[in-house]
Automatic annotation (TrEMBL), chains A, B, C, D:
<dbReference type="InterPro" id="IPR009057">
    <property type="entry name" value="Homeodomain-like_sf"/>
</dbReference>
<dbReference type="Pfam" id="PF16859">
    <property type="entry name" value="TetR_C_11"/>
</dbReference>
<dbReference type="InterPro" id="IPR011075">
    <property type="entry name" value="TetR_C"/>
</dbReference>
<dbReference type="InterPro" id="IPR050109">
    <property type="entry name" value="HTH-type_TetR-like_transc_reg"/>
</dbReference>
<dbReference type="InterPro" id="IPR036271">
    <property type="entry name" value="Tet_transcr_reg_TetR-rel_C_sf"/>
</dbReference>
<dbReference type="GO" id="GO:0000976">
    <property type="term" value="F:transcription cis-regulatory region binding"/>
</dbReference>
<keyword id="KW-0238">DNA-binding</keyword>
<feature type="DNA-binding region" description="H-T-H motif">
    <location>
        <begin position="37"/>
        <end position="56"/>
    </location>
</feature>
<dbReference type="Pfam" id="PF00440">
    <property type="entry name" value="TetR_N"/>
</dbReference>
<feature type="domain" description="HTH tetR-type">
    <location>
        <begin position="14"/>
        <end position="74"/>
    </location>
</feature>
<protein>
    <submittedName>
        <fullName>TetR family transcriptional regulator</fullName>
    </submittedName>
</protein>
<keyword id="KW-0804">Transcription</keyword>
<keyword id="KW-0805">Transcription regulation</keyword>
<dbReference type="InterPro" id="IPR001647">
    <property type="entry name" value="HTH_TetR"/>
</dbReference>
<dbReference type="GO" id="GO:0003700">
    <property type="term" value="F:DNA-binding transcription factor activity"/>
</dbReference>
Length: 204, 204, 204, 204
DNA sequence: ATGTAATCGAGACGGTACGTCCCGTCTTTTC
DNA sequence: GAAAAGACGGGACGTACCGTCTCGATTACAT
């Protein structure tokens, strides 16, 4: 197998990289992912196609990095953002707060188009799906695992519950509603999810 | 606006339709959705491209119909299938049974590739997403709504719980694990989901 | 070896073919052969690139056919063209007349650019060179062979002279001057060539 | 207009220049002129592309210089070569001898590829054509002019013949046969050319 | 039983985008 | 300050499919 020689990262044009990120995100937002083309990104970024192919393997790769970068930018802009779920002692309140923030983010049009596109591509493209999950999804989910573990310590959650599964009770429904547009998402909705998940559907 | 005259359905070639379904499903399984092309389907089905464009609007449409047809075929083959969730009086048992069957289906390679492809396309293509949800997803979910309503009548589920949200506690996690491959799905997993959803994460 | 299936000639678009010929000749004339691109020809002809690649293997092939067609058009337009060198009995006069006509043609800008381009490409591209020679050059030269043979019958040319070589004495110098622009060509020049060739450089 | 400052010739790397010549000639011989690229020459010569663009304007320029250099090398290697046509008093014999040597050179594969490539490029590229003719062709032809002038002094050639045209009678046919491959070249062929040119085609 | 109109397999067509190859320029580091 | 290295913006390559458009050949209905 002939591996093409890796390009020299130290010579890379930062300006072009930023322009490519911006163009990719803009195009996905404006014309949608399927109509976003490498050629279009290059033209919009004022860049040669080869500059894209030199550093990325596909438009999906570009978009993933652009999206990760967007997340970092937003994080920095928001000041030192916690990267942890608050722990006020009131689990229900903490989860509801975080999920409300998540809802707001999901409804932000700047995030929506690329996030949806990446999720879709990840379903069908194994390699990208793997990256999407490990780089974006898992770190988020881990925060819930941590908070639930803490709740188990204080007795707010049953000690035998598997936190990795438990978090799915409120996270997955939200994700699915948003991705598949089966129904609108709202703060009331996520509040309800938390209540159902914590206290069960069966009468107490 | 000139609407193209609807073709004469009575003259439609049943043989071609079936060949197109078969070719579409086979190709999606073999080379994946993105590499499946209308041209490829036509060639494999021994059919002119126009025959596809005459009856469907895109490869996604073809695949959706092919998949619906596949479902019907499977249903008929399986004899009278319930199209309802059993109601033995034991809600937990009934849900676990249905979800176990669902897991088995999701792991069937014949279903996996096209289902995943359609889900992915639906995320990014509004019109198809809508159809996917209404024709495939909603009917399934409605069965859970019905069963949960019945459970509310018998007092097994709190009367104030919204069944449409309640079902998401166990259905969405399964869907997401399967679609995004965040973790493997199994009978044990869905059993756990049902328990958590019914009895809550908080200690009783 | 996988030979791609020959396209169906009967379905070929005559209009596109003509448009491609016209575009190719125009572009070679306007921007020169090296800057003439398949893409440019397609755009100018209002044709998809594939339509060119379906019927020709390269821009050189296109130009060769376009040029042959141009010759046929011109021939038809000129009414019954001779396709033979006149035979008035006066060999010198006949050759001078034909060569003067050739000079006029070589100086016609409509012929010059494509002819020069094809000659150049033929030097470096064996396959095209072969075609250029057999389809364009040889038929022309054969006319001289015929006329010289006739001259040998009447005693105007030595019977032991090889006509195929003899004709080169006046044809090749003209060709080379024109192609390589070593010196201008004119009626006087070709007249001189005929005289030198017939009567020799040595004193009589 | 800003003319780029001429680089400092005294600092030029002789080693690189030689390597570039060698690479250019080798590549033209191996893959042909059209597939010979500046990038390829640079890589093969172990040289940066800029080093080529600093000293030459195009691959044609490089090849022309490389070819001229090759000629000088060959000349030096062959010992002090005459750079004049021998003058034994027998014009026919002298011309035949020189033309036989020329035939040998034309058939030498080391000369063939680059010479043909340069001739072809010259047909289509005015500037290079001009250089090719003045630097390579004309000096050669001038030798014939000189020898024919001398022959006119001794009465072996008619005094009113224009030597510049006369030489074309035997030189151009040879050139054309070789370049356009209309027919093979050989010693017998050039001998015949000389005879025909000197004594004419008409019976004496 | 025949005429006729629509579907069918086939595939050429005008296009768009692909991913690759080079162009000629520019920048960085080394000698 | 030339040289090796190679990233850059750009343009064209030749290919793959798109969705539309003719072509006969077939087919199934209305006469």
């Amino acid at each position: 197998m002939v591996k093409k020689p890796a390009p020299d990262t130290t010579r890379r044009s930062e300006k072009s990289r930023r322009a490519i990120y911006a163009a990719a995100l803009a195009l996905v937002g404006e014309v949608g992912y399927p109509k976003t083309t490498v050629e279009g990104i290059a033209a919009r970024a004022g860049v040669g196609k080869q500059t894209i192919y030199r550093w990325w393997g596909s438009k999906a790769d570009v978009l993933l990095e652009a999206f990760l970068d967007l997340g970092e930018q937003a994080a920095q802009a928001a000041g030192q953002e916690p990267y942890a779920i608050p722990d006020t002692g009131d689990l229900a309140a903490d989860l509801k707060a975080v999920l409300r923030a998540t809802v707001d983010e999901l409804l932000d049009p700047r995030f929506e188009a690329p996030a949806r596109a990446l999720a879709a591509e990840g379903l069908v493209n194994d390699q990208l799906g793997r990256e999407f999950v490990t780089k974006l999804l898992e770190p988020q989910l881990q925060l819930y695992v941590d908070r639930l573990r803490s709740a188990q310590d204080t007795g707010a959650v049953r000690p035998d519950a598997d936190p990795r599964i438990a978090l799915e009770l409120f996270v997955s429904p939200l994700t699915q509603r948003w991705l598949q547009r089966t129904a609108p998402v709202s703060h009331a909705y996520t509040d309800t999810l938390v209540d159902y998940a914590l206290y069960g559907l069966a009468p107490r």
